[in-house]
Amino acid sequence: VDTNILIIEVDPDLGTGQQVADALKARGVLVIATAPQTIRAVTHLDVSAAQAEKAAELVRKVVPRLTPVA
């Protein structure tokens, strides 16, 4: 199933979901904390690939130790 919703589990060593959401918001990336260690991101139909890459770059800068969850 294709979706535009990302659910991201935040490692407690990196802070809370709200702390990560706040750090991203300060850099122009809007996500929402949905639980103490979870954030949710949704892309809009009009977001270009270049804009998505820019957001991903900012996430990597804010949270440099991201590890994919299987």
The total of beta strands comes to 3
The class by helix and strand makeup works out as alpha+beta
Strand order of the largest sheet: 1-3-2
Strand content: 15-25%
> How many separate helices?
2
* Residues in helix, %: 25-40%
Average predicted confidence as pLDDT: 85
Largest sheet: 3 strands, antiparallel
Regions with pLDDT < 50 over 5+ consecutive residues? none
Basic shape: globular
Terminal residue distance? 16 Å
Write the H/E string, N to C: EHEEH
User: What is the radius of gyration computed over CA atoms, rounded to a whole number of angstroms?
Assistant: 12 Å
Task: Give the topology, please.
Layout: E1 5-9, H1 17-25, E2 32-35, E3 38-42, H2 49-62
Antiparallel strand pairs: 1-3, 2-3
Keywords:
about 70 residues, alpha+beta, three-stranded antiparallel sheet, 2 helices, about 20% strand, globular
Description:
The protein has 70 residues and is α+β, with helices and mostly antiparallel strands. The chain is globular. 33% of the residues lie in helices and 20% in strands.
